[in-house]
Amino acid sequence: MKLHMPVAKEGIPFILISALVTFFFISVSMPLPASVFILITLFIIWFFRDPEREARTKDTTILSPADGTVVEVKKIEAEDSPINEKSIKVGIFMSIFNVHVNRIPVTGIIEKVIYFPGKFLSADLDKASLNNERNMVIMKSNVGKTIAFVQVAGLIARRIVCKLQEGQAVKIGERFGLIRFGSRVDIYLPEDSELLVRNGDIVRAGKTCIGNLS
Hints:
CATH class of the largest domain: Mainly Beta
Order of helices and strands: HHEEEEEHEEEEEEEEE
Number of strands: 14
CATH topology of the largest domain: Glucose Permease (Domain IIA)
């Protein structure tokens, strides 16, 4: 049985650096800064937490790719959609208090992975989807539907991690990356999808069913 660390490995360097600074202040008998860095280390460990999750799914299930709050639900015309058809866009804002590990929303094949350089506007703004640094993934689901999901950097988030490659077979709920220190993930679904969330809803990656493919 493969053991899974409860902390994302991308957070290990930050945890080690903070822990080393903590031990330094302890070794030179400086209790106040040592106490501060103990709290910082604990926060970093908590921020990079990566819990195991399992959800009941069917072939048409769409799981949330991110933890956070739904901040945008809108219809997108074909010419403005990454899947080249009329779509439903769902924007999910990830605060620093959310789990930041991102997960695959449907089972299928990765068709494209496209990186866009850009700005670092606050990720809860609608224009962040188009202006900010982002990483777009387009995939074909196992029921033949094309969807896209986009990791968007934010005001504080300056590092997008995506482990996917074109042609890769993926399963719903699998981890595929993260965004450090608060950001946003947008997902584009075919217009005829059944949508089960609305603005203000709280969702969890790999756990919350946000809709169904037709």
